[in-house]
């Protein structure tokens, strides 16, 4: 018999490099899955680690191996401190995504650092981690993985949209869960906010004060990725190869770059979330970008935009990786082939007990 209640820590580090998100969650399965987030926290990266993670895409195999060892130690210390700080004693597992450095599913390869076996001994808990590799081995994109959580935890919404380093969406279509990455978001907005001396563009005020460059907007909207059928996913490789070169070829003010890119994000999302009178559930750091949300509402006038409580906005991905870990412990499907394009549904993740 499976347990009815699970107490887990979900751990997530995203491509926007905001830091490591941790959430202590109780999941209950008495007929349907429910959850409650009891403790949550984001631990920011030091400047040294920010630089390492930003540049790791260019590391050679030996450097990547060393980086994964160091990052596993860092992650272990962050998790252990979280457990100690909140005096957590009832823990069924720590469910950790790690940090994506390379994501090349077209080449049968994805790398999330921080998932080495040593994490089990350093944290002294059961660990469930490395959720993406198996899916890529099965011919999938290895992403997105959140939709199983959308399906089982947030089924009342027509669209579940996350605005993080990238925007990704999941929804039901003809009885199947569909999900894919839509466009870059904070990977680009934060980069240009850095040029202005800020880590991010607050509520979108810098973008709001800029002007749209129609030529740039047109070129961005015509990028090949947006015409590709799903399943499809994005990584920093795409941003470095396709987004930054386009934007930087225009000699325009940084605020105009931000304004144009916000319009690009909103227009691409609106193309996908186009069902009239829909309920659109938005989480991720981008949910706080009031100007981006304003532009989305402009494109989707009949859509009810739902932005939940702060814990759910900020820690939904940590929450769902905790949930993926629970499903893995139960050997139940936690990755949907309809979403990733893998050859079959499967239960993904490595368990270190």
Description:
It is a single chain. With 353 residues, this protein is of the alpha/beta class. Helices cover 40% and strands 24% of the residues. The chain contains 13 helices and twelve strands. It has helices spanning 47-55, 61-85, 118-123, 133-137, 147-153, 186-195, 205-208, 214-221, 236-248, 254-272, 290-299, 310-329, 337-340, and strands spanning 5-13, 20-29, 33-43, 93-104, 109-113, 127-129, 159-163, 166-173, 176-184, 279-283, 304-306, 350-352. The strands form two sheets. Strands 1, 2, 3, 4, 5, 6 and 12 form a seven-stranded mixed beta sheet that branches. The protein has a five-stranded mixed beta sheet with strand order 9-8-7-10-11. The longest helix is centred in the first third of the chain and has 25 residues, at 61-85. 48% of the residues are buried.
What are the salient characteristics of this protein?
353 residues; alpha/beta; seven-stranded mixed β-sheet
Beta-strand share of residues: 15-25%
Count of helical stretches:
13
What percent of residues adopt helix (DSSP H or I)?
25-40%
The rough form would be described as: globular
- Rg (CA only): 19 Å
Poorly predicted sequence stretches spanning 5 or more consecutive residues: none
